Structures are given as structure tokens and as C-alpha cells.
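S.,

Sequence below, as promised.
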Amino acid sequence: MLIGAQSVAVWLIGEAVDMRRSIDGLAQAVVDSLDRQPITGEVFVFGNRARDKVKLLWYDRNGFWLAYKRLERGRFRWPATGGAIEFAALMLLLEGIDLAVPRFRRVPIDRVD
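The prediction came back faster than expected:
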């Protein structure tokens, strides 16, 4: 998967993306938004308008990977602009930590039966 991930470039797409898009649609969004090629092995991060869903797209030597995360409560703390971010910042973003004001947010977890 993301072997040696700390050395992988991560690109955040700033504008909201329709989460119904799959690999081909997201790959085209990479070209349109960032003027980059999606087959570089870099990780591209997309969020929806409500900022409660995120998709990651990356290419390894055999094909594309697509990861999807939906929050049950709350929103991802999306930066105001897109562009290159550090891998550590991606991990913080996926944990719900605001990159502008890094602090831990406790979210109560209800028991799921």
C-alpha cells in the first residue's frame, strides 16, 4: 500500500468534489485542479462539500488505489486552500485535527451494537 509513506508527496484538492466520482473521475480532477498526472505515485486527497467524507487516490506500479472515509459525526478540518501538504499533516487531517490550530478534539463514541 503506502510503503515508505513519509516520503510520498501528498496533494490536497482544495475545492469540494462529488463523492460519486470513482477512479477515472478523480484522476481527471487531479489533472484539472492541480495540472498533475495521477500516475506519479503521489497521494491525492479529495473532500466533499459537507467535509464529512474524504477520498484518497494514488497509483502504484500495478494500478490505482482508492481509499474512502466517512465520518459518523463532525467534519474534517479542511485547509482553506489546496496544494502540497506533508504526510504527517494528512494523518492529522484524517484524525479530524484542524491543521490551522492543531489541538486534540475529543468526540464521544456511542456504543455500536
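The two ends are 31 Å apart (CA to CA).

Coffee later?
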